[in-house]
Design brief:
This protein is mainly α. The protein contains 16 helices and three strands. Strands 2-1-3 form a three-stranded antiparallel β-sheet.
Length: 401
């Protein structure tokens, strides 16, 4: 006897899934038939195995190259084990090579390819495993692998865009702060000594700058640095909690400049992931659960899980999406059209492509807007310091005349 995981449709067309203990797959089909369920996927539940502990860094690019090469070999008719053996020796990333060699051994011992992948969650995501499982069940593994590679590549591009939008302002702001700190610590004290020797009452702007410089150079600078480190550590620790992550993610989505950008990124990721899973034959409830886990934002994750609950209750996908505040009306309308025409995966891909372009435009606009703002800030601050330092000199020249 073995435990089988199944997924299928009832006579009303509702997708259900579960586990059944039986001797063979035929017995599982018979059990489900009595319950008037037509199975779409039946797979033996893998026995508990030791999770891989490979610690090396595996990049998304390595997974993409491996997936495309593996798809080509399967399409060419090479046996699964032979393809895995070849790839385990020729991949550039040694950690990935060890994982593939272990997968090959597990497949040889009788596990399905998807079950072998499950033993390496740090290398292959749940989305990857579920799509492979659907590909194996449908006999279209090479097609699914190519689709997976394309999905990961697009996800990489989206991640790169977001990093570009965040890194540029951070770098320019850091340089600006460093320039101001260097002026305050090294340039202003030199002028301050000279002014002390001259005597007299200094102008108010000069006294302000010298006071700030003395504060930063003394214990005040250490207090500011300690406060910044404490705030960063607190945010990191707070974000590791479920409640903290939700609060921070909510605040990020409400930011005036970055909020709309992050919202577009979330919509693009949601529609791309869901569309890829649906087109690969993964049951819709599993699709929503996986999409929620890979959303990267707790607000979006909870919204997707709420959508899943309503779909379980018999509603269409469009209705609960309409209630979720994180998705624009356009998404709701296009999903509704996709469901009514039977082309949900195509519609989701079109939405993802549209929002990818929107993210591109948002990143370009953000960069174009932040650059002059930061330059104005830096120019104004440094200009004020320079004028404040030269005011006493101008006053001295006037007195000499």
């Amino acid at each position: 006897m073995a435990v089988y995981q199944w997924s299928g449709k009832t006579s009303r067309g509702i997708v259900e899934s579960g586990e059944v203990t039986a001797a063979t797959k035929e017995e599982v089909i018979a059990i489900l038939g009595k319950r008037k369920i037509v199975p779409t996927i039946i797979a033996e539940k893998p026995k508990k195995a030791v999770i891989s502990r490979f610690r090396g860094k595996i990049k998304d690019k390595d997974i993409v190259v491996f997936t495309r090469q593996f798809a080509t070999m399967i399409n060419a008719g090479l046996p699964l084990v032979q393809a895995l053996e070849i790839l385990s020796t020729q991949v550039e990333n040694k950690t990935l090579g060890k994982a593939i060699a272990q997968i090959k051994t597990d497949v040889e011992s009788g596990l399905t390819y998807a079950d072998a992948l499950k033993k390496h969650p740090r290398v292959f995501s749940e989305l990857y495993v579920n799509m492979v499982s659907a590909g194996e069940a449908g006999g279209v593994l090479d097609t699914i692998l190519n689709r997976l590679a394309a999905y990961i590549e697009k996800a990489m591009k989206l991640k790169k865009k977001v990093k570009g939008a965040m890194v540029y302002p951070a770098v320019v702001s850091t340089i600006a702060v460093m320039v101001i700190v260097i002026i305050m610590l090294f340039v202003v004290p030199t002028f301050s000594k000279m002014f002390t020797q001259l005597g007299g009452t200094l102008p108010l702007p000069t006294r302000m700058i010298i006071g700030i410089s003395n504060f930063i150079a003394g214990i005040g600078g250490l207090l500011i640095l300690a406060s910044i480190i404490a705030v960063i550590v607190f945010i990191i620790q707070f974000r590791r909690t479920e409640k903290g992550k939700k609060i921070i993610d909510t605040m990020l989505l409400k930011l005036p400049i970055f909020g709309p950008l992050l919202n577009k990124v979330s919509v693009a990721k949601f529609t791309r992931t869901l569309g890829t899973l649906v087109s690969s034959g993964v049951p819709i409830l599993d699709c929503l659960e996986i999409t929620a886990k890979t959303s990267g934002n707790k607000v979006v994750e909870y919204s997707i899980l709420d959508i899943r609950k309503e779909v379980v209750g018999g509603k269409t996908l469009a209705d609960p999406i309409k209630k979720a505040k994180v998705f624009p009306p356009m998404v709701t309308h296009m999903v509704a059209v996709g469901e009514s025409t039977g082309a949900l995966d195509t519609m989701l891909s079109k939405i993802a492509d549209f929002y990818d372009d929107e993210v591109d435009a948002a990143v370009s606009n953000l960069t174009a807007m932040m650059e002059p703002m930061l330059m104005v800030f830096l120019g104004t601050t440094v200009g004020f310091i320079v004028v404040a330092m030269y005011l006493p000199i101008f006053k001295l020249i006037t007195l000499i005349k």
